[in-house]
Amino acid sequence: MILDSQAARGRSLVDVLREAAAHGVRLFQYRDKLSPSIEAYRAALKLRDAAAEAGATFLINDRCDLALAVEADGVHLGQEDLPLPKARGLLGPGKIIGISTHQPAQVKEATEGGADYLGFGPIFPTNTKPDHTAVVGLEGLRQVRPLTHLPIFAIGGVTLDTVAMTIQAGADGVAVVSAVATASDVGRMVRDLLAQIG
């Protein structure tokens, strides 16, 4: 689950994390592209502590400095962020590094470069990230699945109605933002999503 305060619409991200974790989410990524560094740091500390209490893995989106500062479990990097070898040098071999990918060449490069997992998408149109790259669709996911042995998390517009077909197309898991953060019952939405993933 991606924790983004803009997508949460005023809900406490710590509360969302705790409820989602209580119902089965085990991997969280904190994404904050707007707040000043000190605010992002304070929020990340609270989220890291909540994730640790829940026995969940906690990653930081984009920023190796913030991941190091709060002792997160790792970082998720986009194509415009630090190169994978530089990030590995900063974080060390024990941290998780995921890479956002959108095309076959990026999937191959991240796999060969030693990423721990891949995000791939956007699978469907999404309002959570309005400046996203072109939609790759389920067919794009099917095409890259044979190119990597790494776990692929499909991202971009994945909902309860589309999660099963996304897994069938080759994803090992899905990254969701608003599907959970805006649900009237976070716990129930998490359970329903996990049931579709199988």
Q: What can you see in these coordinates?
A:
By secondary structure, the chain is of the alpha/beta class. It has a single domain, classed as Alpha-Beta Barrel (TIM Barrel), CATH 3.20.20. It has 10 helices and 8 strands. An 8-stranded parallel β-sheet has the order 1-2-3-4-5-6-7-8. α6 links the parallel β5 and β6. α2 packs parallel to α3. The chain is globular. The mean pLDDT is 95.
Residue-averaged pLDDT: 95
Low-pLDDT runs of 5+ residues are none
CATH topology: TIM Barrel
Distance between the termini: 17 Å
The CATH superfamily bears the name Aldolase class I
- The total count of helices amounts to 10
Give the spatial strand order of the biggest sheet: 1-2-3-4-5-6-7-8
Total number of distinct structural domains: 1
Helix content: 40-55%
The tally of beta strands, per DSSP, is: 8
CATH architectural designation: Alpha-Beta Barrel
The CATH class is Alpha Beta
Shape: globular
Strand fraction: 15-25%
User: How many whole angstroms does the radius of gyration measure?
Assistant: 16 Å
The biggest sheet amounts to: 8 strands, parallel
The helix-strand sequence is EHHEHEHEHEHEHEHEHH
Summarize the structure.
The protein has 198 residues and is an alpha/beta fold.
Compile the SSE list and pairings:
Layout: E1 2-3, H1 5-8, H2 13-22, E2 27-30, H3 37-54, E3 57-61, H4 64-69, E4 74-77, H5 84-91, E5 96-101, H6 104-113, E6 117-120, H7 137-144, E7 152-155, H8 163-168, E8 173-175, H9 178-181, H10 186-197
Parallel strand pairs: 1-2, 2-3, 3-4, 4-5, 5-6, 6-7, 7-8
Helix pairs in contact: 2-3
